[in-house]
Design a protein that fits this description.
It contains five helices and no strands. The chain is mainly α and 67 residues long. It has one domain: Orthogonal Bundle (Protein Yjbj, Chain: A), CATH 1.10.1470.10. Helix 3 (26-32) runs antiparallel to helix 4 (36-47) and helix 4 (36-47) packs across helix 5 (51-66). The radius of gyration is 11 Å and the shape is globular.
Length: 67
């Protein structure tokens, strides 16, 4: 799944995002609003990982969701 698909399916994906990353709040989901960069930033912030690691985690999750 790519960034455009995430944006288009955001309302359906919000629950899956919160299930995958339980530290993300409803406010985070509203802020992210389907933007992959914002999701990466929130994962980085909430989990205390480097941006590169957050990007890898998000991309792996998106790939798994597309499978």
């Amino acid at each position: 799944m790519n960034a455009d698909q995430l944006q288009g399916k955001w309302h359906q994906m919000r629950g899956a995002v919160k299930q995958q990353w339980g530290r993300l709040t409803d406010d985070d989901a509203i802020y992210i609003d389907g933007a992959q960069d914002k999701l990466i930033g929130r994962v980085e912030e909430r989990y205390g990982v480097l941006r590169q690691e957050a990007r890898r985690l998000v991309q792996r999750w998106l790939d798994d969701m597309a499978a």
